[in-house]
Specification:
heterodimer, A: Butyryl-Coa Dehydrogenase, subunit A, domain 1, Butyryl-CoA Dehydrogenase, subunit A, domain 3, 3 domains, 11 helices, B: alpha+beta, Butyryl-CoA Dehydrogenase, subunit A, domain 2, 15% strand, globular
Chain lengths: 379, 398
Amino acid sequence: MSLVLNEEQRLLRDTARDFLAANAPVAALRKLRDERDPLGYSPQLWQQMVELGWASIILPEEYGGLDFGFTGLGVVIEECGRTLAASPLFASAVVGASAILLGGSARQKFAMLPQIAGGELTLALALEESHHHRPCHITTTARADGEDFVINGSKTFVLDGHSCRQLIVVARSDGEERSRAGLTLLLVDREAPGVTCRRTVMADSRNAANLDFDNVRVAADAVIGEAGKGWAVLDAVLDRARIAIAAEMMGCALEAFERTVAYLKQREQFGAPIGSFQALQHRAAQMQAEFELCRSVLLQALSAVDETPDQLPMLASLAKAKLNELVKRVTNEAVQMHGGIGVTDELEIGFFLKRARVTMQIFGDTGFHKDRYATLCGY
Amino acid sequence: MQELEQFRQEVRQWLEDNCPLSQRQPITPQEQYWGGRRGTFPSEDARLWFERMRDKGWIAPEWPTEYGGGGLSDRQGQVIKEEMKRIRARTPLYGIGLWMLGPALLEYGNEAQKRQHIPAIINGESRWAQGYSEPGAGSDLASLQCKAEDKGDYFLVNGSKIWTTAADKCDWIFCLVRTNPDVKKQEGISFLLIDMDSEGVSTTPIALISGESEFCQTFFDNVKVPRENLVAGLNQGWSVAKALLVHERKLMAEIGSDSPRKVMAPNAAARQYLDFEEGRISDAQLRSDLVEYDMQMHAIALTHFRGFEEKASGVRSAAPLVMKYLGTEAEKTKSELLLAIMGSRGLGWEGEEFSSEELDALRLWAMSKAMTIAGGSSEIQLNVIAKSVLALPQPGER
């Protein structure tokens, strides 16, 4: 049954929660931020996550994976959302691994997936070219030159773009500027000649970068799937990524909400706990109702990755749009209900607010996904 | 799992063999069979369909066989519902006896009460009304004043009940009555079953903004109610009422999908009433409202399924507690959206200039306003969620 976690999944969730509370609390992100950490995450933490098997949850056993399913990955990512744990898990083990898994050649799979599972290979998807998610508005070019491809263009908002080892670049080898046809996915070493990387400091203190490609030359075997036919792979990868980030958003929202409800019970004004005031009770109860809806949507979307992939586009857009709205509402209310201390840097609520804003933009804002859902409905 | 699948095949076959084709058409309010001494079958096929379902034990598939139920498991009951829905089989018997009182009696009634009332409900012999709200006791239900004095072998009932659905057509009414005025208000309430034919009972219909008058007010003037009609103990009525409200809330949350009227789905209405450009609705605001509604309904449907899966796996969550609030609010949103999509064609009150779908859309819009009030208003639902899910501190008693 897809809408209830099984015992193994619940166990994985509990293990992840305990591990993250002990090893990657919000204070760890604050430290990375305050020390302006050049990598943006702790390699020791990443190594521990890898040892727990988190980088290989969705990978088949033949590539050194656990084959534990996307729902399993979802529960771990949700827990990461609770503590805002910074790591390459999303960019590499979800987005990068899915691209290789869904589009890669046998050689690429056998060469790369075990390395991803082992944590030594980290990936980043270089997709966006504007400040809004427009996955087929690609002007970066991949020009065939003999056996090679030559890449020119610029990418922005590349998650883990400055810390990964390899980039998956979405480039146009053919077709009109906004067409789905003619897109090609290529593997590029981040250190390759012609690649310039500028880290961007974002609201959430996590990792993103702007990248320029100036006559970057790669061999034909750098292509993932078939040149010019990258859209189908990209679309499927993006849907998995949207569902995974929705799981992170659930964790982020839930933690902010639970901390807020606890505060409502503890904080006293006018001689009573503020949580006894109906103005706050009703807003909290409405959020609880939205959580129930989002929980169902998220579980269905996670299980659809493995069980009913034909429903993914609709469920991914539903999940991303719903969780966007949830995390926005809940983090705003969390600040408001905490009152004055809610806007101090000392209280961790602000970290949730800021991470929420960034996740809302990742791979499609609410408007993008409402439009996509409406289009899929035929109107 | 395999057994359930086999059961499904049997159900499918039986329905195929036994459900008359005329009973697989969308139903109108006039075609519903509500049972009771004054109830009549709208057609011979409706009678046949009801009798076959009754004899099969599928009017109430999950209830025990000794009272006329089917003795089946919840999952099996769900399979029957799903299979009926699949062929659009009509509900053979409507009634709050079936939906609300029956489940409560099975839980709280004594053996004699179960034997007297449950088979009569299933067989369509008695139609029930609910007597909860009073003119002065709406959201604050526990403040009810309808009085039942303990006279030994009977109770003497005086007062009135409002929003008694179709009480003028009912045989019995279950009532919350005040049996002790001197204790905390919830602790002085009892649950009584009252025969509508008793001397001193009278009923008046109430006209609503929708133009309908299915609701009534029922008056009790020195009505003698035998002591054996007390359900659970004296002053135990509040517990019974709470149990019953769960059934009512579940019902109201499901009402949209089972509505007897031919309501158009908003996305179907959009195709009929809105302009499209290159496959998209041209009106950006309506397109946005429509997709928001469709997404919300998708999420609500998934949450219904989650509730069912959780029940089957013995997992508890807050999902069932938020469904009445979400379901009825969504129903209101839907009605507003339909009217907006239909424009002035959705505003017709009566007459030949409007299609029946258009007229129904407007009447349902007016009726939908009652859904977030009846059965515990949305505000009360939010209070309940705040208290029982979030465990927020309660405001001081005033």
